[in-house]
Amino acid sequence: MPSFEPETNEHQELSIELPVRFVHELSAAVSLFDLLKTVARWSQSVFLAHRASITLVESDTHLKLIAMEGKEAIPMDQLLPIEGTMAGRVFLNRQAEYMADFSMTRDLDCMQLYETGLKCCLDVPLISGNQCFGTMNVAHEDTNAFTLRDRLRMQAMAHWLAACIRIHHQVEEVMALSETDPLTGVFNRRAFSSRFASIAKRWQSEEVSLGVALIDLDHFKVVNDTYGHEAGDKVLVQVGELLAKSCRKTDLIARMGGEEFCVIMVDVNENGIMAMLNRFLDTLSKMSVSFGDTHISVTASVGALLIDGAPRDLDFLIGQADRAMYRAKNAGRNRIEFTHIY
């Protein structure tokens, strides 16, 4: 691996000239993935490379190829082992590396690039603060195609990109906190309403069925009055966990307030809704929540809807589900009342 000449003040003051179109595309990016794709595409142009890619850390043992432009030497979304790869070494050591001639290395990622006609690459870490988020790579079909100037410019771009990634993660964390019920970990009512707006668009455009289930714990006031609110909170936490296990990953689960939960399911039928809810009620009836020397059991009443007709607004759906849920209460509790709306 060739060594670059030492950095000087002259090197440190190098600038990166970015096309105005690149800046416009960055401002139009609506997600982190869009941002990474844009940076990869323009990195290929800025560094006159035949391939540009970005990996992000996936686990303690692997990086994941997230964005790529140019030769598809490594499949998108492929997990790249940290051990035995140049990208993994750059990530671990947090130092840029330049492999001027792939015929001189046995690194797995370099060998994969070599097999497609690429002959050298420059890899830099994505560092912001005390975190390394992954790596940024450019490759060329000629040997020894990159210079110290390229490394300095690319490292500067990588620092900027890493700062964007860090800010994105921080925004996601803040949004998650604002949307999450702090006790149970499911969505809160405000987030439920905003997320439903996205679901409604799919419901309308794809003309799929929509399922709604309003779940209310039976005699929950007795639990709080008898064992205290700390015990009641523990019950709610376990009910939230049980709901998450019972539903599909694509289902929207929220705590609407108190002991009431709601689930929205897209593209379901009556059998699917009833199977999920019966499974939930059966497991709930067998669940025992330990609190001190006491074991607390609860049941729930459920109002369930399946809507096959024209899309309706959220207030209408919740109102219909609420009426069905009260029918379940009046019929003896610990049961499901189902309504099919055409």
TrEMBL record:
GO terms for molecular function: diguanylate cyclase activity. This is diguanylate cyclase. The lineage of its organism: Bacteria, Pseudomonadati, Pseudomonadota, Gammaproteobacteria, Oceanospirillales. InterPro entries: Diguanylate_Cyclase (IPR050469), GAF (IPR003018), GAF-like_dom_sf (IPR029016), GGDEF_dom (IPR000160), Nucleotide_cyclase (IPR029787), Rev_trsase/Diguanyl_cyclase (IPR043128). SMART domains: GAF, GGDEF. It is an enzyme of class 2 (transferase). Its EC number is 2.7.7.65. NCBIfam families: GGDEF. It catalyses: 2 GTP = 3',3'-c-di-GMP + 2 diphosphate. It comes from Halomonas binhaiensis. Transmembrane segments: none annotated. PROSITE patterns: GGDEF. CDD domains: GGDEF. Residues 208-341 form the GGDEF domain. Its cofactor is Mg(2+). It holds the Pfam family GGDEF.
